[in-house]
Design goal:
single chain, 124 residues, alpha+beta, 3-stranded mixed beta sheet
Length: 124
Amino acid sequence: MVKDSNRPRRVAELIKRELAAIIPRELDDHFAHKITLTGAEVSPDLSSARIYFSLLAGSAEAVPAAAALNHAAAFLRRALGKRVGLRRGAPELRFVFDESLERGDHMDRLIERALTEDRGHKGD
């Protein structure tokens, strides 16, 4: 039997989409409406998933938000299992703060500063 190598990627997208709908509606936590899911990775055997998120408030609340999401992971897994038709049920969920957006913003600021300094030196 040939395994579908795209299946983990498709399942990851499905999980991300469904959790994005579940979290603000089902979680009674002040982080629930500040969270944006930015990505998901599912293991090849579909037993575990890593869910990446960002916050409107930035990284200042990343640790407590990740703790709150991971504390609610079993509840979210059950809610997800009711919504998606996976043969073995929903995978174990682990939430991770996505630092890539902030790193990108930092790089943009560094580039802008370098360009500004370069323009200043050309005027000398």
